[in-house]
């Protein structure tokens, strides 16, 4: 059973970079079983897909956030990370890491089978 756990600061100042890490257990981020994504939910809004990293290390991002988003990985720790630069209060949200089967549509949030518990990130000075 794949399990995911987010970690990182809960408070980020405007204009700074938000950095979160997802630790994966019960599965490997380097095999082609799954694709690994970051998804967020802002207050009063629906879930928003931010980007994905696949087993080969390739990344794909939401067009609306592509200029500010970077996803990387540490294969030795079975972790993948999110960096979101130049944050504003509009980036305040609960951030989730999640896994979907590699053959799925990465953008379709309903396809995601395994989720972390989520971590609240507030952007405020």
Q: Nutshell version of this structure?
A:
0% of the residues lie in helices and 49% in strands.
Explain how this protein is built.
- The structure is a single chain.
- The chain has 125 residues and is mostly beta strands.
- The model has no long low-confidence stretch (mean pLDDT 95).
- Strands 2, 4, 5, 6, 9, 10 and 11 form a seven-stranded mixed β-sheet that branches.
- 29% of the residues are buried.
- Helices cover 0% and strands 49% of the residues.
- It has strands spanning 3-7, 11-12, 18-25, 34-41, 47-53, 59-61, 69-74, 79-84, 93-101, 114-115, 119-123.
What does the secondary structure layout of this molecule look like, with pairings?
Blueprint: E1 3-7, E2 11-12, E3 18-25, E4 34-41, E5 47-53, E6 59-61, E7 69-74, E8 79-84, E9 93-101, E10 114-115, E11 119-123
Parallel strand pairs: 2-11
Antiparallel strand pairs: 1-3, 3-8, 4-5, 4-9, 5-6, 7-8, 9-10, 9-11
- Tally of helical segments: 0
> Could you tell me the number of beta strands?
11
Q: State the end-to-end distance.
A: 39 Å
What would you call the quaternary organization? single chain
Question: How much of the polypeptide forms β-strand, as a percent range?
Answer: over 45%
Cα shape: globular
């Amino acid at each position: 059973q794949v399990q995911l756990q987010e970690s990182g600061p809960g408070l980020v100042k405007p204009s700074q970079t938000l950095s979160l890490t997802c630790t994966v257990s019960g599965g490997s981020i380097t095999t082609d079983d799954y694709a690994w994504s970051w998804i967020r939910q802002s207050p009063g809004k629906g879930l928003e897909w931010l980007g994905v990293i696949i087993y080969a290390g390739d990344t794909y991002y939401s067009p609306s956030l592509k200029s500010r988003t970077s996803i990387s990985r540490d294969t030795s720790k079975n972790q993948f990370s999110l960096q979101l630069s130049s944050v504003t209060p509009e980036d305040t949200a609960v951030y989730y890491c999640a896994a979907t089967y590699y053959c799925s549509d990465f953008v379709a949030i309903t396809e995601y089978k395994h989720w972390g518990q989520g971590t609240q990130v507030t952007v405020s000075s």
